[in-house]
């Protein structure tokens, strides 16, 4: 049995997760899979009910399943809570508690959507790389941290084992792709980055078939928009990965398209990279493709069924080629459809394939 915990969350979260659940139902039927889906509260929805964003009950459920599917959390309603009560803090807690040390964000361009990007088609066409962001260390978690009336401070710190395991994942991922890994740091300024670089080079000895390149983060930000095709796999620290994965996501056209996987040695969580988009919540307008793509990543990474993942990507591609678009990716003259309609079309494609 494949045990999934679903966390619809806030804003458009419930709508896009409902779409993903519909796809899971189709796949269960088609491949005769025993899938159980248990829904839990997280984020603002949990705060309104229990006074906290992440309850022990939700956390326990996440620890006792094969994969977590998350919609989106947060919204204006909960923005003014104290720092430690905000949805962001709960997100960091769930990452840490589940040991999700790696965040995988593919930057892949669907041919049908090339015109939606802010980059020229000839620069973009053929772009397909993976950003691997370290997710449970670095400045996001380092101590001491705080602020008073006169100063604010955070600490960027990496332990050797933290760099080793993310570097290994970077090399392993590159081995399955074009065998090119770019490690991104700021070793010209930060000691912590020099340390990162040293360890990445040590781990490189285990993977001599992979070409390793070091790149400074400022240059990397430029290179991603200048010539995204040069990248195959990127591995980087938590904060740099936060920024670079948004840039990488945006060049592919729409944040509504991109899935992500956060994985650790025991647990995994899958979520679209977009936020809760409260302005369009409840209107049947949201783009469910990023969440459906996150289900594909789940089949690949948690269930070791890459062929099912491939079917999902194919079904998405076919629907896009048919000209169907949700509003966020539509141009003049496109066939603009609702969340339900595009989900039904992808389901139908999967049933037929
Ligand atoms: C992300 C988000 C989060 C992060 C926020 C919401 C805490 O930007 O997943 O990239 O900074 O990690
Ligand atoms: Mg971010």
TrEMBL record:
Enzyme class: oxidoreductase
InterPro entries: IsoCit/isopropylmalate_DH_CS, IsoPropMal-DH-like_dom, Isopropylmalate_DH
Residues that bind Mg(2+): 218, 242, 246
GO cellular component: cytosol
Family annotation (PROSITE patterns): IDH_IMDH
EC number(s) reported in the record: 1.1.1.85
Subcellular location: Cytoplasm
Isopropylmalate dehydrogenase-like domain segment(s): 3-346
Binding site for NAD(+): 75-88, 275-287
Site (Important for catalysis): 140, 186
GO biological process: L-leucine biosynthetic process
Annotated catalysed reactions: (2R,3S)-3-isopropylmalate + NAD(+) = 4-methyl-2-oxopentanoate + CO2 + NADH
Gene3D superfamilies on file: Isopropylmalate Dehydrogenase
Record-level Gene Ontology MF annotations: 3-isopropylmalate dehydrogenase activity; magnesium ion binding; NAD binding
Keywords assigned: Amino-acid biosynthesis, Branched-chain amino acid biosynthesis, Cytoplasm, Leucine biosynthesis, Magnesium, Manganese, Metal-binding, NAD, Oxidoreductase
CC cofactor: Mn(2+); Mg(2+)
Residues binding substrate, per UniProt: 95, 105, 133, 218
Pfam family, one: Iso_dh
Assembly with partners or alone: Homodimer.
NCBIfam families: leuB
Protein family per UniProt: Belongs to the isocitrate and isopropylmalate dehydrogenases family. LeuB type 1 subfamily.
Protein name per its UniProtKB record: 3-isopropylmalate dehydrogenase
Organism field: Chlorobium phaeobacteroides (strain BS1)
